[in-house]
Design brief:
Blueprint (H helix, E strand, L loop, with lengths): L1 H10 L14 H134 L2 H22 L1
Helix pairs in contact: 1-2
Organism: Bonnetia paniculata
Keywords: ATP synthesis, CF(0), Hydrogen ion transport, Ion transport, Membrane, Plastid, Transmembrane, Transmembrane helix, Transport
Pfam family, one: ATP-synt_B
Length: 184
């Protein structure tokens, strides 16, 4: 350590210009060289280092500013999306409520339609039954009429004598004749 302080003290005592030699004290020469290099670096590199640090500082500030702008934009977009989400949720609730009421309405429409269809089918069934009853009644009436006519013809044929037969025919011809005169 004494050598280091001696080297600094000896800096003030330079020998005269006539002598040149090697300083074998490694610590003293390294410190001198290091201080000279640092001095030169500080003197000449101060501007470059200052510019590099200023550029780096500007890049960092720009990056922070951009990040803040992106963050602001992202927050803005997030709020827009949240607003749209709220609107969609409200619309979904309305669709759900409307869907349920639409389902109820369709259910009642279907029930009413089915009831009307059943009424129509019941009416068709009743009409078909009445038609079949009338047809059956007509068939029975025709049979009864045919049987009565056959019975009457049988009775007439058995009771009719040729003379009564001729009088009946004459009376009928007379009736048809008088009907014909009335029509003319």
């Amino acid at each position: 350590m004494k050598n280091v302080t001696d080297s600094f003290v000896s800096l003030g005592h330079w020998p005269s210009a006539g002598s040149f030699g090697f300083n074998t004290d490694i610590l003293a020469t390294n410190l001198i060289n290091l201080s000279v290099v640092l001095g030169v670096l500080i003197f000449f590199g101060k501007g470059v280092l200052s510019d590099l640090l200023d550029n780096r500082k500007q890049k960092i500030l720009n990056t922070i500013r951009n990040a803040e702008e992106l963050r602001g934009g992202a927050i803005e977009q997030l709020e827009k999306v949240r607003g749209r989400l709220r609107k969609v949720e409200i619309e979904a609730d309305q669709f759900r409520v409307n869907g349920y009421s639409e389902i109820e309405r369709e259910k009642w429409n279907l029930i009413n339609s089915t009831y009307k269809t059943l009424e129509q089918l019941e009416n068709y069934k009743n009409q078909t039954i009445r038609f079949e009853q009338e047809r059956a009644i007509n068939q029975v009436q025709q049979r009864v009429f045919q049987q009565a006519l056959q019975g009457a013809l049988g009775t007439l044929n058995s009771c009719l004598t040729p003379e009564l037969h001729l009088r009946t025919i004459s009376a009928n011809i007379g009736m048809f004749g008088s009907m014909k005169e009335k029509m003319d």
